[in-house]
Amino acid sequence: MLDLSFEPPKPKVIAGAKHDWELVIGMEVHAQVSSKAKLFSGASTEFGAEPNSNVSFVDAAMPGMLPVINEFCIAQAVRTGLGLKAQINLRSAFDRKNYFYPDLPQGYQISQLYHPLVGEGEIIVDMEPGVARKVRIERIHVEQDAGKSIHDMDPAMSFVDLNRTGVALMEIVSRPDIRGPEEAAAYVVKLRQILRYLGTCDGNMQNGNLRADVNVSVCRPGAYEKYMETQDFSHLGTRCEIKNMNSMRFIQQAIDYEAKRQIAILEGGGEIVQETRLYDPDKGETRSMRSKEEAHDYRYFPDPDLLPLEIEQAWVDDIAAHLPELPDEKKARFVKDFGVTEYDADVLTAERDLADYFEASVGGGDGKKTANWVINEVLGRANKAEVSPREIVAPEVNAAILEMVAKDEISTKIAKDVLEKHIESGRAPAEIVESEGLKQVTDTGAIEAAVDQIIADNPEQVEKAKQNPKLAGWFVGQVMKATGGKANPKAVNELVSSKLKG
Amino acid sequence: MSELTKLKIAEARDALRKGDVTSAELTEACLSAIEGAGKLNAFVHDTSEIARRQAEVADSRIKDGDAPSMCGIPLGIKDLFCIKGVPSQAASNILGGFKPEYESTVTTQLFGAGAVMLGKLNMDEFAMGSSNETSCYGNAVNPWRRGNDDEALTPGGSSGGSASAVSADLCLGATGTDTGGSIRQPAAFTGITGIKPTYGRCSRWGIVAFASSLDQAGPMTKDVRDAAIMLEAMCGHDPKDSTSADLAVPNFEAMLTGDIKGKTIGIPREYRMDGMSDEIDALWAEGRKMLEDAGAKVVDISLPHTKYALPAYYVIAPAEASSNLARYDGVRYGHRAKLSQGDGITEMYEKTRAEGFGDEVKRRVMVGTYVLSAGFYDAYYNRARKVRTLIKKDFEDVFAQGVDAILTPATPSAAFPLGMEVEDPVQMYLNDVFTVTVNLAGLPGISVPAGTDKQGLPLGLQLIGRPWEEGDLLNCAYALEQSAGFVAKPSKWW
C-alpha cells in the first residue's frame, strides 16, 4: 500500500486571561447506512416520502412485532469498518436503550452498547499537504434511528413522522485525538469522503444523514501529551457533548464558543459540569440541554428479541476483497504514478467519481497535464454551473483533446477553444479541429515566412528587442495572431529569438 | 350436542374424516357450550362468525380429502395472540379497542391446518399472574370445585381462560403461552395437559410480548395425544422471529408409543421444597413408581442452583417486561387518557399508563425498571443472568449424564380459592417454583394430570425434556398418562 508521509498539525492554542489552553475533541458521528430497507424491517428508507408512509408494523412497534436484522446493513457497517482499517468483531450483540419519546415507538432504541460490530480503527485527517492528524476510531456500532417529532405545525399539538424510525445508523466513535475546530471539521470531511467512497453513507448533512456529536474539553499545554502516554483520562478536562451538529461551519463555531465558555469558567475558579449541550447557530452559543434531574438512565440491556450477531471471517474477507481503492491510497497513487502535486491529488480524490473521471481523462496521456486541465478547465466550469464534471464534458473528450495537444496537433490555447466549441455543439474534438482548420502549423517554412514578415514590417520594434530580449514576446504574439493561433508556439519562439539575434 | 364438545382432538379428527360429524356441528356444539358457561368467564371475545365461516371451509376441505390434522377442530385462542381484525388486548385495558392488522404466526399455522377459532380466552393481564385475577375482564373460574364446597377456585394463570375452557369442554383445545409456568400451572389446576415446547420451537411473532427470552406458546389439551397433534401444527421455523429455530418438526403423534423402557428419568432432590404438602409429595412418589413400572430407570439427581431460580426469574422477566411494555404509551394505538388543559407528553404517558395498566403489571414494570437502572444493574439483572446460566448448566449436566427426562410436581398445591393470594404477590410468585427453571433453561416441559387431592381437585406432574426432544418428552408423558389413568372431570355447576 502506498502512503504519503505527514507531520501532525499543531494543536490549537487559545490564550485565556491567565494562561494558554489547548482543546481536546472527540467525535461521535451518526451516519445513515445507505440501504433500501431499514435495519430491522423491510420498510423503505427513501427520503422525502409522505409522512408515515414508510412504516412497517415493526417500526410502529405494534404488539407482538419482532425485529429481524437486515444483513445488507450489517455488510455496509463491516465495509465501513474495513475502510477505516478497523477490527471487525465476528460476534457482536444488540442492546436496548430505553427512554420514552413519541418518535421512538418501541420505547427503546436497539443499539450496540456492550459488544459493537466494529472495534478500533483510524482515520488520517488531512490538513494541508504533508500535514495530517491520525485520529483513532474507538468503535462503530449499528443502531436504529428515531422518527421525527414536529412541534411547530400546530400551536396545541405535536406531530410524529415515523418514516425515519428504524433506519440503520452507524455510530462512529473517535478517540479524543482532535485538537482544534478546523481539525474537527476536517475530520468530518474526511470521514464523509471515505463513507462516500465506500458507498455506505451518502453523507448528505442537510438531510441529516450525517450528524455529529462533538465532545469538547480544554486542558493546559502538556496535559494532552500525558494523556497520550498513559491513556489516563484524568489528565484531561471534563468534557461537554454538543449534540446533533450537521454543518461543518457550525461544528467549528460551536467548538470555538464551547472552548471559550469552559476556559472562562475554569479561569474564574469554577468547575465544568459534564453535560449535553445544544448549539444555537442564531445566537452563536451552546446551551445546556437538560438538567441533572432529568438525566436519562437508559437501562441498557441485551435485546432478548435478537440472538447475538455472528458473522464469518470468510464473509468479512469477501467484503474486504471487493473494497474500492480509498482516498489515501488513491491520492498517494496519483502523486506517485501521475506526478501530480499532493494538493492537486487532494482535489482530484475528493470524490470517487471525480477521481475516476480524472483517470478516464488521462487515458494514455500525461497525468500532470491532465490534472491541470481537469482542475482548471473542467472543474472550474462544473463548479460554476453546479453540475458534475461529466455533465460538462465526457472524460474521453478530455483525453482526445489532450492527445492532440501532446502530438503538437493543437496548442493548449486552441485546446481550450476546442473544448468550448465541443461544449456548445457536442461535436467531436477532432472534427472541430479538422473542419475549422485549427491544426497547428508546424511547417517551419510557413512560420518562418510569417516571422520574416513581422520583422520586416516592424523595424523599430526589432531594434528595441535587440536591446531588450524580453520584447521577443511581442513578436511571438504577432506571429500567433497572424497565423490564427495555429502556429506551434515552440517553433515560433525559437525562430523569433534566432532571427532577432541574427 | 354437548357430548360432541367432550371429544378429544384425535377423536374429533377421526370422526370428521369418517364423516360421522361435521366441523359445523362440532363448532355449534362448542359455541352453545360457551354460551352456557358465562360463569366461567373463560371466553372474553366472541368470534362465532369467524368460527362458523372457518367450520364451513374446513368441512369442504374434509370433503375434498384435504384434511390436515387440525382441520375442523374448534379451538379457543388466548387473548395474547394477535388475530387480524379481532380484539387482541392481552387482557389489558391499555390495549382496549386494539384490533391488529396482522395475524400471529402460530394462529396462521393453526388456521392453515384448518383449525376453527371459537373466541379469545381470558388470561392474566400481559400474562403476568398465576391466578387469572389480574385480567381486565375479571378472573376466569376453575370448573373444578372442592367436594361439595362451592367456593370459586382459580383456574391458575396466566392461561387461566384456556385451562378453564378446555377443562369444561367448551372447546377441544386451546392455545396458551408460558413464560414461567403459564401453561403448565393452569393445566395442572384444571386436570388437563399443557406443554411448553423448547424456546424457539414456536414463533413468537404476533404474540404480545411479556418477557421475550422466556415466552413460548404451546397447546393446552385434554390429553397428551392431543397435545402432540396440536403442537405439531403450532410450531416450526419462522424467519420473522430471530429466536425461532430452523429445525424440522417431527410427527410428534407418531412418537407416542408409550414405550419408555430403558429411558432414564431423573428426580431432582432440590425440588423437594420445605413445607411441601404431603399430597404433592405422595403424587410425586406415585409418578416415580408409574414410570418405573413402565420400564424406565428412575434415578435421583441434583440440580444445585434450583433455589435461585425463582428470584432470578422475578428479576429477568420484569426487566424484559418493563422494556417490552414501554410501547404502550397512548401515542399510536390502544388506550389514551383524557388530558387536561396544559398537559404535555409526560402527563399523557403517566395518565395513560396509570389508567391502562393494572396493579400487577405496574408492579413488574417498576421492579423491572429498578433492576435495570444504573447502579443496580450488576447487583440484580447481571447476577440473575449468571444464575440463569448456572441453572441451564445444571440441566445440561444431568442430560449429559444420560438423563432423558426429569419428573417434578407441576405446582406446590392444587387450585386455590380466588382472592386468596392476591394481596401477597410473593406468595403468588411461589406458584411458579417448579416451572420457572424450565423457562430459564429454555427446555420443553409438560404438565400431565396424575391424580387428585383429598378434596377431589386435580394435581399435575411435570416432565422436563431435553432441548428439541418434544417427541420423546411427549412419549414419556404419554406413558405417565396411561399409568395414571386420570379420567376425572369436573361436574357441571355453571
What is the 3D shape of chain B?
globular
Q: What is the makeup of the main sheet of chain B?
A: 11 strands, mixed
- What pattern of helices and strands is seen along the backbone of chain B? HHHEHEHEHEHEEHEHEHHHHEHHEEH
- Determine the number of helices of chain A (DSSP H or I, runs of at least 4 residues): 17
Number of domains as seen in the coordinates of chain B: 1
End-to-end CA span of chain A: 56 Å
Strand order of the largest sheet of chain B: 1-3-2-4-6-5-10-11-9-7-8
Structural write-up:
Chain B: The active site is at residues 78, 158, 182. Chain B: InterPro entries: Amidase (IPR000120), Amidase_CS (IPR020556), Amidase_dom (IPR023631), AS_sf (IPR036928), GatA (IPR004412). Chain B: It comes from Allosediminivita pacifica. The complex is a heterodimer of chains A (502) and B (494). By secondary structure, chain A is of the alpha+beta class. Chain A folds into three domains: 13-307, no CATH class; 325-436, no CATH class; 444-501, Arc Repressor Mutant, subunit A (Orthogonal Bundle), CATH 1.10.10. In chain A, 40% of the residues lie in helices and 18% in strands. In chain A, the strands form four sheets. In chain A, strands 1, 2, 6, 7, 10, 11, 12, 13 and 14 form a nine-stranded mixed sheet that branches. Chain B has helices at residues 2-5, 9-18, 23-35, 48-63, 105-112, 160-167, 184-190, 224-234, 278-293, 309-324, 345-356, 359-372, 378-400, 425-429, 436-441, 470-484; strands at 43-46, 74-78, 116-121, 173-178, 193-196, 216-221, 264-268, 297-301, 405-409, 445-452, 458-465. Helix content of chain B is 37%, strand content 13%. Chain B has 16 helices and eleven strands. In chain B, a hairpin with a 5-residue loop joins strand 10 (445-452) and strand 11 (458-465). In chain B, helix 3 (23-35) runs antiparallel to helix 4, helix 8 packs antiparallel against helix 16 (470-484) and helix 10 crosses helix 12 (359-372). In chain B, strands 1-3-2-4-6-5-10-11-9-7-8 form an eleven-stranded mixed sheet, with helices on both faces. The chains are: A alpha+beta (502), B alpha/beta (494). Chains A and B meet through loops of A and helix 10 of B.
